[in-house]
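Q: Could you fold this chain for me?
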Amino acid sequence: MEDGDEIMLDDKKYEMVEILRKINMTRPVALTLACLSDGCELTSRSIEKATGLRQPEVSIAMRYLLDNEWVEIREEKKNEGKGRPIKLYRLVVPLDTIINNIENDILSQNKSILENIERLKNLS
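A: Sure. Below is the predicted structure, expressed as structure tokens.
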């Protein structure tokens, strides 16, 4: 996708963002993930335009997605002039797998909380 191409988040993607927010994902990560969920390769600028996020917010979201090994970055040299290469981002893990990872993390956290509550009950 060229930088001039406009991408838009539809109602389904906004609903995805709302659900991700309800399970404690940050707004920038949820928006960025929704943007990339179609499997398209996007520049950070096109993500900014589609989501209304600022560049630092997209960078922080990308760091989270990279840390989880959900995205890859490809650099492409600019056609004209000098300057930094353009970074292109793409999901490398299917959205279903990402959702399963989130689910497993939440289940694990809740199990730990319940175990701590049981220990508290035993101590009282």
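A (continued): The mean pLDDT is 91.
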